[in-house]
Input
Amino acid sequence: MEEIQFVSTSTVQPTSESTDKRIELTPWDLQLLLLGPIQKGLLFLKPTPQLLANTIVDHLKISFSRTLDFFPILAGRLCVVKNDDDTSSFFIDCNNAGAHFVHAVAENANVSDILGPVYVS
Output
């Protein structure tokens, strides 16, 4: 496996104003919390010298920011409230806190390196 170089990390904010919407989680939603985070990524061809990589990353951030306008739950935070009867309630606070954006480069990696079986401890 090739070495991955992290170029930058940032928080992408939605372009719209904060909705301060609260989404209560159901028992079905709570079961899915036990599965752990779902991590997704996108693979792009290495840009040609005429097309600067920073320009592409800037466009991706702007597009991601506009997409968060339609999916405010992705820019929110998971919250827990302790109740008086020693139980807890979970909800998602759609406060437009933003989503994590990581720009990384793997110079000599192939798609087969990423899609192949990987040992996870």
Remarks:
- The mean pLDDT is 83.
- The radius of gyration is 18 Å.
- The chain has one domain: 5-115.
- Residues 5-115 form a domain with the Chloramphenicol Acetyltransferase fold (CATH 3.30.559.10).
